[in-house]
Design goal:
There is one protein chain. By secondary structure, this protein is α/β, with parallel strands linked by helices. It has a domain at 60-210: Rossmann fold (3-Layer(aba) Sandwich). 31% of the residues lie in helices and 27% in strands. The protein is built from six helices and nine strands. The protein has helices spanning 5-26, 34-42, 74-83, 101-109, 120-132, 169-173; strands at 63-66, 69-71, 91-95, 112-117, 138-142, 155-160, 175-186, 191-199, 202-211. Strands 5-4-3-6-7-8-9 form a seven-stranded mixed beta sheet. Helix 1 (5-26) runs antiparallel to helix 2 (34-42) and helix 2 packs across helix 4 (101-109). It is globular, with a radius of gyration of 17 Å. The N and C termini lie far apart (48 Å). S-adenosyl-L-homocysteine (SAH) binds next to strand 2, helix 4 and strand 4. Residues 69-72, 95-96, 98-99, 101-102, 116-119, 122, 144-146, 161-162, 214, 216-218 line the site of S-adenosyl-L-homocysteine (SAH).
Length: 221
């Protein structure tokens, strides 16, 4: 494909902005996993945000994606990926596809990614862009992520990208032994990013600090 001259400039601008994001927002705050840094440096975040917000795509913040939902701040996406220590052979489940951006980042870290979105228009749009960009190892399901996706369980890693007071039991059940589950736990006003590790003796819990996420919704409630 021949890129017209004007688009070439814009394209290279985004590459520069993305490299700056990795350096000043991720490395500077302590993200060290080179695979995570490479993934964040590869995925074109500007194609996952609404067109009129593309110039802000690499800013240090969450951005609105419609339907009262947001694409998470780049640092939080990287932190969740680093904390769950995703390996290439891991099976990964994300609850809250949103824009599909985090799903695309996850697709660079593991060979099998499943993601569930409750807002059908968002799920469809995410599926479309993931297909267009040929992130073929990500499958999007539209529905309530509370029940997980039992057909593909167990998962080595589960990421919940909406805030909940309690981890849904079906998701704990679908986590493999030694699996990692990360979730913003708390009310709409105060949440903590929590990492759970499933051991033979139960769940081990570690807090990674305060965060702000949109609330976990339930279908038909
Ligand atoms: N990971 C996303 C950001 C997601 S914001 C990204 O990279 O863009 C959280 C998303 O979770 C929203 O899109 C919201 O609609 C979705 N969500 C909330 N409750 C849900 C549920 N019960 N099941 C599936 N998705 C849910």
């Amino acid at each position: 494909m021949i890129i017209p001259r004007k688009d070439k400039k814009v394209f290279s601008d985004f590459i520069i902005q993305r490299a700056n994001m990795v350096k000043s927002q991720l490395k500077a705050r302590g993200i060290q996993d080179q695979r995570v840094l490479d993934a964040m440096n590869t995925v074109p975040r500007h194609l996952f945000v609404p067109k009129d917000l593309r110039d802000q795509a690499y800013a240090d913040s969450a951005l609105p994606i419609g339907y009262d939902q947001t694409i998470s701040q780049p640092y939080i996406v990287a932190l969740m990926c680093e904390a769950t220590a995703i390996l290439p052979h891991d099976k990964v489940l994300e609850i809250g596809t949103g824009s599909g951006y985090q799903g695309a980042v996850l697709s660079q870290l593991s060979q099998e990614v499943y993601t569930i979105e409750i807002v059908s228009s968002l799920g469809k749009q995410a599926r479309k862009i993931l297909n267009e960009l040929e992130y073929n190892n990500v499958q999007v399901k539209i529905g309530d992520g509370y029940s997980g996706w039992p057909e593909h369980a167990p998962y080595n890693v589960i990421l919940i990208t909406a805030a909940t007071e309690k981890v849904p039991q079906p998701l704990i059940d679908q986590l493999a032994l030694k699996g990692r589950l990360i979730v913003p736990l708390g009310s709409s006003l105060h949440q903590e990013l929590v990492l759970f590790i499933k051991t033979e003796k139960g769940l081990k819990k570690e807090s990674l600090g305060s965060v702000v996420f949109v609330p976990f919704q339930r279908e038909g409630r």
